[in-house]
Amino acid sequence: MDFARNRLVVNALRLLWTVLAVWYEHFIFLHSVRQCVWPDSKLQARKDLFLPRPTHVLVVADPQILDHRSYPGRAPLLTYVSQLLVDLNLRKNWRASLRLQPDVVVFLGDMMDGGRFAMSDSEYEQYYSRFKSIFSLDASIPSYWIPGNHDTGLGTSDQFSRAAEARYISHFGPLNDRVTIANHTVILLDAPSFAEEDGHAPAQGGPSEFVMLYANSKDQDPVVLFTHIPLSRPEGSDCGPYRERGTIRKGAGFGYQNTLGKSASDFLLQNLQPSVIFSGDDHDYCEYTHSYVSGGKTRHVREVTVKSLSMAMGIRQPGIQLLSLVPPDPMHGSLSHSDSLCLLPDQLGIYLSTYIPFLVFSLLVICFANIYKIRTSQYSASLAPSYAPLSSALRSHSDSGRHGDAWLNYPPEDDALPRPAAFKNAPRPLYSWTFVLLSRRRRISISADSMSSLASLLCGCCGGDVPKSRGTARGILYDVRDVAVFPLAIFGVLAWWMFR
Q: Which of the residues 6, 93, 287, 334 has an alpha carbon 20 to 30 A from that of 137?
């Protein structure tokens, strides 16, 4: 009965862990994106008779994949584990995002955390290949990129590579670019270089010259501006309800600048007159409406700072931005673009608030079940001697022939053969492997005695006296193994599937 009860506990925990692993490692990501819809409804309110299908643009900010420079104070092993977990999270977020079937993808910079640092060409190629393996994309889907301060650098430092911009161009594309999507002019701005030009003479072929070329082109299509660094705004400006904490504040430091300067921001607003602006760099969501004067009129434009896609950027819920575009209707002046936030699972919360508490709960249940089983067995054994006289009497009656009932004929306990002396004190193996090496059979065994101290530590959390018997230690370790094997297998299979 005790053994059956223990098997029931193990099977129940195994089932719960399996359900948790399947849900939190796979289906919760699919569930999150199913809650997200392209913001077409606002555009479909137009009265056009022949309204085309909206073009869906997936906007991704700051994936910033880690390398060995990302956490200089961490031990190499911990850095490697962090990199592995973050890469896995990025893969799950990205694959879930692609289920939305975007028509175009735009990355808002900071693709690689250490892309700006001095390194060999081979190291950069490996770094870039890792990024591309995470963010695999069908060749039929156009993708566009803008540089971030972690890609090409901002300011000067001996640690930054002089070839950072050239490497970016050869791998991602031009620093500044202009494309047309659904009759909208999309401006892809090199914000780090533009921030360095602020207050200095514009560089030939730089972002200021690029902006002026557009301003002189007399293009009449609505402008969608993509910039890595957010535009200037008053200190303490509210970021809206989707912000996790704080606001975007002015500031600068080693290789970064929180916002563009006031004069640089006004230069962009007045020369581009964008219909909407998307920025990155801050990692958290922020929505702010800029006001500026152009042609004697006060104009307003909304800027959305997009959440990072990564769990390692100081936010609990990563996210993406969904942008829908339709060709503008000059006759009616109706809305031609709309966007919405899509939130992804809180991976850190899953680890801290689900896996760890349930792990502690599982260990407590296993410890309690094994202690209960041992103490119940000991209690039953303590009662056994009280029945010995009756057993002897029954046996003697049977031997004397006064009772012929067969069920009273107990075999004497002394009839059992003793255990060989060579094995009397030998520890029973917990795990054993047999293999052939150099034409001889070899065997490796791990005794339960060598693991008893670990079991004692696991049981210590239950309080009270910890049983010292070898059976308790073996039972706990076997139960932990039996419970863990299925969820660990699921973790391994899903990780392999994500990394393949």
A: 287
